[in-house]
Amino acid sequence: MRSQPAPDPAPPAAAPPLRACEAGLIACSICGTVSRAEPEGMPPGAEARCPTCATPLEARRPDSLARTWALLLAAAILYIPATTLPIMVRSSLWGNGQETIMGGVVYFWTSGSQGLAILIFSVSILIPLLKMASLAVLAASVSLGRPGTRWRMGLYRLIEFIGRWSMLDVFVVALMVALVRFRTVAEIEAGPAAAAFGAVVVLTMLATHAFDPRLMWDKPGSSSR
Amino acid sequence: MNDPPAASASSSPPPSGRDLVACPGCDTLYARRSVRRGESAWCPTCGERLYGRPALTPEHLMGLVIAALITFLIASAWPIVEIRLQGIRNATTLSGAALALWQEGRRIVAALVFLTTQVIPLCDLLLVLAALVGARQGRGQGAAPAWAAVALRLLLHLRPWGMIEVFTLGIAVGLVKLSTMAHIVPGVALWAFGALTVLLAAILSFDLRSLWDAPLPAGTDAVPPPPSAPP
């Protein structure tokens, strides 16, 4: 443990870079000010606050791993009705029909819009699945005490960025339902999968935000983990 | 109370909290250096962005936010698209789409659409405006008022849930789908959504944490040194 709280930006190769939690410091999540985790004179049990902007300080996101796993599990369960039940119910003079997400992909593929078919397939089927799998791998790597790597950090940033785009199909359904209201001629209604799918997107986003990437870099068995 | 290891620094004066930066991705500590406009510092350990000075000034950002608010009003109030089928016309606005879902009994989906495309983007823009006004006040008084930080805290939690750009892509996909069965006439709001997507991309690229950088040169009274500093 080095005694200097202000490390050189390029620490010597021999010493590992000092981390805020090891120095008893916390960075404010809002303004970035670094302050002591337990300032002197703070009454026991009191909440530490950022000296610059008075935001309550947290060393790590609370119950990070437990919340991540719980939200992931809920999302994985809802993924099944989201992809198997119909997302749209059509009734028109030319016949009635139901369409699952996969049905929509097939429709675009066979009607000549292969690009859109690939877009919907990636955004609605592939991304939620890969996102849940990746987050599970990241959470498991923390539980197993694997050291953090830039590769895993990149994966976390990717799922954090890409998650919201899965909402695409819900918005497409909302627009179609509102536009195609021609009473007896043609009518489109949202199917039960729409809510399930929206819930999958919300739950995976919550799981991503519950996961604290700094845990990947904490030493196994340290108090902050 | 446990003596934190950093407290044993006695030879050099303890640094102020703004001279250090802890990586939000991996918690590694670095000394903060001043960067030029449009430059950022990145963590060599995990690759996360540490801090930076936005290419836009807060004044630019304020202009963009006001432009986005006006565009948002147009995008919300006017019809997105009109479709014609067998001589019948039908048009919808964004809230009309949410209302149609609600009336159909799909209330969860309706609430989700309304929140992510109307309520949250509007709150986002208003909170950016509040944070900017707060930071502007702070430049006169030395420290930004506490409510500016509260606005920013709320903003950081809300921001991932605003999905205007996803909705814009959703309109495009929906139109392709409908083009085979009906005649489509694009509405005013369609173009407004396109413009709003571009404006929001510029607004979201502004790192609001930097609002605490510019008006506060290191070591001013606004940044109290750590409590254990020797007198």
Kindly describe this structure.
- Chain A is an alpha+beta fold.
- Chain A has 2 domains: 1-59, no CATH class; 64-217, Butyryl-CoA Dehydrogenase, subunit A, domain 3, CATH 1.20.140.
- Chain A is built from 6 helices and 6 strands; from the N terminus they run E-E-H-E-E-H-H-H-H-E-E-H.
- Chain A has helices at residues 64-84, 101-110, 114-143, 150-162, 168-179, 192-210; strands at residues 25-27, 34-36, 88-92, 95-99, 181-182, 186-190.
- In chain A, helix 1 (64-84) packs antiparallel against helix 6, helix 2 (101-110) packs antiparallel against helix 3 (114-143) and helix 3 crosses helix 4.
- Chain B has 231 residues and is mainly α.
- Chain B has 2 domains: 14-52, no CATH class; 58-212, Butyryl-CoA Dehydrogenase, subunit A, domain 3, CATH 1.20.140.
- Helix content of chain B is 48%, strand content 12%.
- Chain B contains 6 helices and 7 strands; from the N terminus they run E-E-E-E-H-E-E-H-H-H-H-E-H.
- In chain B, strands 6-5-7 form a 3-stranded antiparallel sheet.
- The model of chain B is unreliable at 1-14 and 215-231 (pLDDT under 50).
- At the A-B interface, strand 1, strand 2, helix 2, helix 3 and helix 4 of A face strand 1, strand 2, strand 5, strand 6 and helix 2 of B.
Question: How many alpha or pi helices of chain B?
Answer: 6
| Biggest beta-sheet profile of chain A | 4 strands, antiparallel
Distance, first to last CA of chain A: 19 Å
Number of domains of chain A: 2
The parts of chain A where pLDDT drops under 50 for at least 5 residues are 1-8
